[in-house]
User: What shape does this take?
Amino acid sequence: MPMKFECSTCKQSYLHPYTQDNHHYPACPSWQQAGLLQGIAETEDLIHHPIQFLSSYVRMLKSAHPEAS
Assistant: This one.
């Protein structure tokens, strides 16, 4: 289940996969600083910000499976 974060510097939202064994606040892809937890990613995120959501989702998948790149 993807969690949604927002960078306090650039105000960009980004996704990160949630796992039971790995709890941390991931870094913003642009600023490399931990973001603020916004909750779980919802359908409304895709509807209101489709390009930003999809690009963040692709980055999340690539970071979860680096050997597939």
User: Anything to note?
Assistant: The chain has a mean pLDDT of 81. The two ends are 21 Å apart (CA to CA). The chain is about 30% helix and 20% strand. The first strand starts at residue 2 and ends at 6.
